[in-house]
Design a protein that fits this description.
Tachylectin-2, Chain A, five-stranded antiparallel sheet, 21 strands, globular, disordered N terminus, binds beta-L-arabinofuranose
Length: 343
């Protein structure tokens, strides 16, 4: 990830123009996955820290070591930090970099899904369970079999099926799995990537087993197509997938949303079933301060909410972000109104 140029920003002015303020300020939080459990909003973010690791294009400076869960009675209420929900020292298979997590509930158990690098330096996705939504969570001893890359988002469909969407290119290593096996050789963010008119790398998805602890099927590509039915190409940086998968369902349609990474947008694509294909429809959120853009979309009290982050509180430090929330509106034709994070 290239360093963003932030030196010229007037942060006091920016914060005045911001459509929302950080939900908490005592810690840095990012990548918010929001869910409604027992009538309350629970947010599962990354917990950003200053680990003193130099910036590089593979995100080594995102060296997070634990997760905290935030809870809110309503989107305009106070966010309460529930404390440490899971620490990397309590995850036997994980070595470093606890990146964007997600959560789910089934049959009296709360599940935390999270990516981290294993002891070979390969991103895997793990599961931890708890009796209450704020944790503490107990990790499974091994990562999910055949899991790889980052940013799990678990979607519970109306028929009781659960699906995980995941993947991220560059630091998220998705490009190293093109053959189906991890290719360790070759350094730098751009190796192994398709280019130009080649089809873009797809995010991945898999149905979960009944106990939500494993994949019930081999991961499949999530195809994102344009209005003519053609797969988005690798050179289409303003529309192609980079990271930060999310799924929500609105009026019976499946909305797959994601970050475009180096063009800093949250985009969305719609389909008529959880496997896709999904047709590109537009932009959910324009770029925020900081390099990354990452979100979740959830319904609460008959309104829809976008949880997202920016680096305004840290005055532009890319790896010190803060989660925020704002209302999201669907138009009558099912499209989403694009949100500008600063007025
Ligand atoms: O928080 C670390 C990484 O930054 C996430 O996994 C990505 O989605 C990006 O937000």
């Amino acid at each position: 990830m290239p360093e963003d140029s932030i030196v010229d920003i007037d942060f006091d002015e920016l914060n005045r123009k911001s459509i929302s303020q950080p939900l908490v300020e005592h810690i840095y939080t990012a990548d918010p996955s929001a869910h409604v459990f027992n009538g309350k909003i629970y947010i599962y973010p990354s917990h950003d820290i200053e680990a003193g690791i130099p910036f590089d294009d593979l995100g080594s400076h995102f060296a997070m070591e634990d997760y905290h869960v935030l809870s809110m009675d309503s989107p305009d209420g106070k966010a309460i930090d529930q404390g440490v929900a899971l620490h990397i020292e309590d995850v036997p298979w994980a070595q470093k970099q606890m990146w964007a997590p997600d959560a789910a509930y089934k049959n009296g158990i709360y599940y935390l899904f999270f990516p981290a690098k294993d002891h070979q330096g390969i991103f895997r996705i793990g599961v931890a369970t708890a009796k209450s939504p704020g944790g503490p969570f107990t990790a499974q001893p091994q990562a999910i079999k055949n899991s790889f890359s980052i940013d799990p988002a678990v979607f519970a469909d109306d028929d009781g099926s659960y699906y995980m969407y995941f993947g991220g290119i560059w630091g998220g290593q998705l490009q190293r799995w093109r053959t189906g096996n991890f290719v360790a050789a070759g350094e730098g963010p751009l190796v192994h990537l398709p280019t130009g008119e080649e089809p873009a790398l797809c995010p991945k998805m898999a149905k979960l087993t009944d106990d939500l602890l494993e994949f019930a099927e081999a991961p499949k590509d999530v195809e994102i197509i344009d209005e003519n039915g053609k797969a988005l190409v690798a050179g289409d940086n303003e529309r192609r997938f980079f990271e930060a998968s999310w799924m929500h369902k609105y009026n019976g349609r499946y909305y797959f949303s994601y970050s475009t990474g180096d063009t800093h947008l949250i985009c969305y694509a719609t389909g008529d079933n959880p496997y896709g294909p999904f047709t590109y429809r537009g932009i959910v959120l324009n770029p925020v301060v900081g390099w990354t853009n990452h979100h979740s979309i959830v319904e609460f009290n008959n309104k829809w909410w976008l949880f997202y982050h920016d680096s305004s509180l840290s005055r532009g430090v890319t790896h010190l972000r803060s989660v925020k929330v704002t209302e999201l509106r669907h138009n009558n034709d099912g499209t989403i109104q694009t949100i500008n994070p600063y007025k």
